[in-house]
Amino acid sequence: MFRLPYKVNGFTLIEIMVVIVIIGVILSFATLSIGDGGQARQLKQETQRLASLLKLASQEAIMQAKEMGIFFETDGYRFCVWQEQKCQILTARDDIFRPRTLPLGIQTEIRLESEPITLNDAKKNTPQLLLLSSGEVIPPFEVIFTAESDETLRYRLTGTAMGEMSIQKDE
Questions:
Q1: Quick check: is 96 in a domain?
Q2: Strand partners, 107
Q3: Is residue 140 part of a domain?
Q4: How far is CA 151 from the centre of its chain?
Q5: Nearest partner of 163 among 60, 26, 30, judged by Cα
Q6: CATH number for the domain including 72?
Q7: Rounded CA gap, 31 and 33, in Å?
């Protein structure tokens, strides 16, 4: 049998994919943080930021074999990780999944399985969305970002149970 005189080291496909996802998220944050561009651009940026964070959190849940959750609030959202039968909120020390506050002038409407929910009325320990280690997102959701100054200016982030997400501008 032929043997190489040295040990071959390399990266696995999963390691390369994780690095590519992290680079993509960092680049999208850098792109989104440049300039204000008005209310329409700000709405689009917030929608894209949430979509990127949800995709990254889903990948993290798969890689770490842990379920993650998201609490939506009237002024932002928080991520958590299921540990020891409860949801541990990720703190500001976590640069990526830290609690996020929406800019002034932006409202959100959350729909789970096509039903609108009232924010800040949910049980304290139960996130509205779960990102499972299998790659599934439950329940299917819609997050609608609206400008307070112009109700016709809206962006919609839609997520399916299989973890697919899409962004569209409502006209």
A1: yes
A2: 146
A3: yes
A4: 24
A5: 60
A6: 3.55.40.10
A7: 6
Asked if residue 59 belongs to a domain, the reply is: yes
Number of domains in the chain: 1
Task: Give residue 32's pLDDT.
Answer: 64
State how far the Cα of 153 lies from the Cα of 86, in Å rounded to an integer: 38
Single-letter amino acid code for the residue at 87 = C
CB 131 within 8 A of CB 67: yes
Per-residue model confidence as pLDDT tens digits over 19-48: 999 998 888 887 766 544 578 888 999 999
88 neighbors 74 (Cβ within 8 angstroms): no
Report d(CA 89, CA 98) in Å as an integer: 9
Q: Residues 45-92: pLDDT tens digits?
A: 999 999 999 999 999 999 989 999 999 988 899 999 988 778 888 887
CB 69 within 8 A of CB 133: no
Tokens of 128: 């509205």
Residue 101 is part of which domain span? 13-170
Alpha helix (H) residue ranges in 33-78: 38-64
